[in-house]
Every structure is written in structure tokens, then in C-alpha cells.
Design brief:
405 residues; five-stranded mixed beta sheet; 35% helix
Length: 405
């Protein structure tokens, strides 16, 4: 997992949990009291999984293989996996065509269960100590002594011994571990420098130093967490479930926020369009009110003109219209059989010797000056006998009344 800004670290200490506040503007500060509320206020909380709930095994694998898969196979072959344990393969280094991986298996810890849902990232405690030039670091977690081995400032092995004090059994465990790591090529030499963290007596320090024959540095108080550039994230089973649940919820929130934003934009667009249309409607209504008087006068004038036109306009006299229509008959082979005029609608029907004469007569009628106000249409001439076709045409004046009127 890539490094990201961290504001709090929850780490197991000698007598319980340590809650550290990480600030970019000041040194890390140990909060004497913390609660679930203070944990819930953390944006990015790193939780150090108790060492007793972790099992670490350094293994050499092929650099082309998947570290997690090969780490799990190695632990299964050694019968080291507990039920429901999560396995992680943490790359350490590559040398001589081999890759050194720290295989970790993690299980749930009763002391940490309540805090899994608050943590964003997980780490094992040995990686939160600054190894500097030390080969071994020894510390307490809930009175149990733990230790870790380092190579080139990288943790290659750690364990919780279960011992409550420094004595021959603890020194024997560290010595045997150092010999095994050296034999496997994980450590290059026997440890030369050791750091002891916590409240240990002078006798304890002397015994540890003389038995292991190391240069010992003592830190009476636990230093602030050392934040590595990347995190291994060895989440226990329940913690992994919480992380997956949180990821699903964040994904749901992402799509929900996107949908809300989309519908908000649609709503804003529709509201804007409705506002524009209302403004246009208001403007049109205002314009309509402004011309309403003039429109009423114009309508009254048109009505009066229609009534007056019947008396003065020759185009409205049926006898003049008939004379104009009859004057356009091209020959004796064309004759009119029907003529009607009613409320601006002019209908003419007749017979001709052929279709060409019918269309010729139609074109003549359209050019009559007296009938220029009419919009003329004609039907397809119908053959009704030998050398005889029937035609019909209709002229419609713009002020003609329709059938609905």
C-alpha cells in the first residue's frame, strides 16, 4: 500500500494501547487517554496488529512468483497456518536469483477487534520502530516480551516470546533464532547491536548484553512511531472484512454522489429552461397586450372591408367571374358543365376532348387578372368516353370561410 497522510497511530504498548497523534507541523504526541470517539475522528488511522496474533517466517522464493501465493504455500507445507488466517508475502530483497520474502499469517485478536473498523491501514509493530543501525530490537506488549531482527534496516523476522521477564529462556530464544536466520542466509552475521525499549532494570540489561555479547542501547520510554514509506497491511480476517465493507460503501457513495450530481445538473437545466420559457411567455403576453387594441381595430376594419367588398369588387360578382371564365375557353371542344361560387370558394367543372386541353384551360384560368386572388387546385382529369375527359378545378380566396366556420 502506498504511503498516504497519517494523522493517528494505534500501537500496542507495554501496558495497553498507545494512541499517537501525528501532526505535519510538530513532533508526534502520545495521547494519554483515547476513546472510540477519538478513533472515529481519525481520517487515516494506522493500527499496529498485536505481535502475538502474527506469525512471521522468512522464506526464499523465485522472484518471478507471486509473493502472497508462494508465502501461503510455504506456510501450508510447514503446517503453520491456523484456521481462517490471512497470509501476506512481504518482499524484502533479491539476491543471486532469489527473492527473500517475509511470510506473515494474521489472526483476529480479542484486544483489537473493537478497533478494526476504525483503522484505514494495518502494520506489524516491528516495522514501526526505527532500526537505525540495530540488528535486534526487544520490547514489551502487554508485559509479554517481543523481539525483531533487521537486515539493512528492514525487518526480516519478529516474534512474541510469551516471556514476561528477561532471563536465560529469552536469551536462548534470541540466540537460536539468530543462528537459524544466519544459516538460512536471512541474516549475514550474528547480532552485534541490540536496542531494548521499555522499563527494564539494570540487571536485565546487563544479563541480555553479556549473554548475547552485543552492544546494547536502552530506551526507557517507547519512541514515537516510525512511519515507513509504504505499508505491508497485514490485516487480520475480521479487519479485512471491514476494509472490504468500507470499500463497497465508498464505491456506493461515489456512484450515489455522481447520480445526485447528474440529476442536480438536469434539474438545474430544466429549471433554467423553464425560467427562460416563462420569461419569453411573459414578454409575449406583454407584447400581446400592447397590440391588442390595434389588432382589434384591424380585425374590425377587415370585417367591414369584407362586407363592403361584396358590393364594389368585380371579383366578387358571380356574373363577372363567369364571363371571365367563359372567355378562356380555348375551343368548341371544351365546355363548362358546372360553375359555383360561395363565400370565396370558386368551383368549375367541364369536359374537354383530351387531357392536354383540360390542363391548358386550367393554366388559362390561373392567369385571369380578375381571379388572381384565388389559390387554384385541380383534380386529375377523368376519362368518361371516347374523346371526352371530365375536369374539375377549385379556387380558394384567402378570406374564404372553411367548413368548420
Amino acid at each position: 500500500m502506498k504511503h498516504s497522510p497519517v494523522d493517528f497511530v494505534l500501537r500496542p504498548g507495554a501496558n495497553g494501547w498507545e494512541f499517537w497523534k501525528i501532526s505535519p507541523k510538530s513532533d508526534p504526541a502520545l495521547e494519554p487517554d483515547f476513546s472510540m470517539k477519538s478513533l472515529g475522528g481519525a481520517r487515516h488511522l494506522i493500527m499496529a496488529v498485536p505481535t502475538r496474533s502474527l506469525l512471521a517466517v522468512p522464506v526464499w522464493i523465485s522472484p518471478q512468483g507471486d509473493p502472497n501465493e508462494l508465502a501461503e504455500l510455504e506456510m501450508q507445507s510447514r503446517h503453520l497456518l491456523k484456521k481462517n488466517a490471512e497470509v501476506h508475502g512481504i518482499p524484502i530483497l533479491e539476491k543471486d536469483g532469489r527473492a527473500l520474502v517475509l511470510a506473515l499469517s494474521s489472526i483476529d485478536d480479542d484486544r483489537a477487534l473493537d478497533y478494526y473498523s476504525k483503522a484505514k491501514t494495518f502494520e506489524f509493530p516491528a516495522r514501526l520502530w526505527d532500526p537505525d543501525a540495530e540488528d535486534v530490537i526487544v520490547w514489551r506488549e502487554w508485559d509479554e516480551i517481543c523481539f525483531a531482527f533487521y537486515r539493512d534496516k528492514k525487518c526480516v523476522y519478529f516474534a512474541c516470546t510469551g516471556e514476561l521477564s528477561i532471563g536465560s529462556p529469552l536469551c536462548g530464544i534470541i540466540t537460536r533464532t539468530a543462528m537459524r536466520l544466519r544459516a538460512e542466509g536471512v541474516a549475514l552475521r550474528m547480532p552485534a547491536r541490540l536496542r531494548l525499549i521499555g522499563d527494564f532494570s539494570f540487571e536485565d540489561r546487563t544479563l541480555l548484553r553479556d549473554t548475547l555479547q552485543v552492544e546494547l542501547e536502552h530506551s526507557p520510554h517507547a519512541p514515537s512511531p516510525f512511519l515507513p514509506s509504504n505499508y505491508t497491511n497485514p490485516a487480520p480476517p475480521s479487519a479485512k472484512m471491514e476494509m472490504e465493507k468500507r470499500a463497497r460503501w465508498q464505491k456506493f457513495l461515489f456512484f450515489a454522489v455522481g447520480a445526485i450530481a447528474f440529476y442536480t445538473l438536469v434539474l438545474l437545466f430544466v429549471s433554467g429552461d423553464l425560467l427562460v420559457r416563462r420569461m419569453q411567455l411573459s414578454r409575449f403576453a406583454s407584447e400581446l397586450r400592447s397590440i391588442e387594441g390595434r389588432a382589434s381595430e384591424a380585425h374590425k376594419l377587415v370585417t367591414e372591408w369584407k362586407e363592403f367588398r361584396e358590393a364594389v369588387d368585380p371579383a366578387s360578382f358571380a356574373i363577372d367571374q363567369l364571363a371571365a371564365v367563359a372567355a378562356q375557353i380555348p375551343s368548341e371542344q371544351v365546355r363548362l358543365t358546372q360553375y359555383s361560387f360561395d363565400s370565396g370558394r370558386f368551383t368549375i367543372a367541364g369536359e374537354a376532348a383530351d387531357v392536354a386541353q383540360a390542363y391548358d384551360y386550367f393554366e388559362r384560368i390561373k392567369k385571369v387578372p380578375l381571379l388572381q386572388d384565388y389559390d387554384w387546385t385541380s383534380r386529375q382529369p377523368q376519362l368518361v368516353g371516347r374523346n371526352k375527359v371530365r375536369f374539375e378545378m377549385e379556387g380558394l380566396r384567402p378570406d374564404a370561410k372553411t367548413s368548420e366556420e
